[in-house]
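Handout, section B. The chain below has 555 residues.
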Amino acid sequence: MFPANTFAVDYSITNVEIKASLQENGNVDVHESHTYSFSGEFNGMIRELIPKTDSDIVDFAAFEHENELLVEQDQTEYRIHRTGNSETITIDLYYQIMNGVSVYSDVAEFYWPFFDTSNESTYEELTITVTPPIETTDVIAFGYDTAFETDIISESGQVQFLFGEVPSGENGDIRVAYDMSLFPTASLTKDEPMRAEIVAAEQQLIDQAIARAERTEWFASVGPILTIVFVLILLIALTHAWLEKRSKQVALMKNESDQLLPSQELPLPSTIYFTNYYLLSPESIAASLLDLVRKGNVQQLESDRFRIVNRTGLVRHEQVLVEWLFDTIGKNHEFSFDDLNAYTKNQKNHETYQLKYDMWQREIKDEVRAAQLYKNRRTYRVILSFLSVGLGVFSILLAVHDLFELFILTLGLSIALLSFALFYHPRTWTGEKIKHEWKTFRQRFKSVQSSQWKSLSEDDKMRAFLYGLGSNDKEITKKNEELAKAFQKPTSAQPTTATHSAYSFDPTWILVAGVASSTFQSAQKTTGPDTSSSGGSFTGGGSGAGGGGGGSGAF
């Protein structure tokens, strides 16, 4: 409840001693000594004391040596004023718990939480001492959570709980019971015996500790074996995947030809998507439009104006693109970059633009999916996923039993196995072939010579150029610009090799592609959705037995 960062004070609580003296009338006189080590300026310390039901905190006072300090109380929070700068100070607190002892027909018990999970300060060293009204040998004493097995009972009946370090956010209720005859003037809480119930509660804690120790021993013995098993499973899965992929690559490299440009197994936009990390950028739209010019479905009228001349034979994503550009944005079967700019300036068109863009991308993805370029390993991946989840659950149980080294190891294995199961998509022979050939093209194209480029057909030049444009590959784009000097537009005096291309390639295409790319980039930026983020925080705390508790801090 009182974190140091909340109050912008840098401090540590190096030692806390709490002495609770039980009185014959059932009240408890408490003396707390808190040693704070401050770094930088401070104004004082904070103590939160939450009384249990039917009890109360009274007569709270604070001292440093003999000097009484100013205390401000806000419900259960006490602020003790003591200013300073980079000091180590010890503050003594005194208060009384009214009706702190619960009296029954056979015993009286002091069951109290001096701190709870709402405490966000660590006590580096904590000791709690409970003293009965008179000396006795009839004592029951134990603690919960961090107080478990910390109690020492003296011959006089005094009980000392040696906590040691208590991290923030922990419970540590203490429970001490004496014969009820030691409290002759205290009011009876309930006229019924309680000793057997208290003894049973202590035995339950002991039994739970024994059971936990046995489970911890079992997990500690099984954990390493299971770790080795899953390491082998992961290694076998990785090795199998590597060998499967390697065998295809070796076969492809063995049959590799000197051909610069691969054959067109898929339409160009789908090829770009499949071989370019599954990305489709605004440049891909430009490349797809110009690819329709290459195939003869679209005619370029001017440097920035196009006409659809043939809709026959278009695949689904090409149909969507034509309807989007020539019917929705353009008119009279024509489309220009000016049409696109005018269309996107109208905000009412933004949603439609994005819907068409998403539809076009989806059709390309569907085409790649339908080409069956990946093997179906669903059952294999599901089995590995279930194994990884099972190991993850086991790792959490290791953490619960404080086996943190095994927890980290098994959790890492679980994440690695789950990641493999999620991302394992082995390609078919055709898929591996397309991926390999276009990867090889990227590598070879960086050093291609003008003579080799000139030997390509006009159609292959266009495909190479548009692939670089659509994949937004800067190196291919740069190489295209270098080769532009070797480009020559065919004339009647310069016959060219017969090709199936509807458009001969010349340097003006670089200018057209540049304008197309920038125009579609601008359109995407204009119509794209705005993004924003928001955050929040929450706080919470707990309480000790019967609603009590507390914590410490500084300000």
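Note. The mean pLDDT is 86. Compare this with the example in section A.
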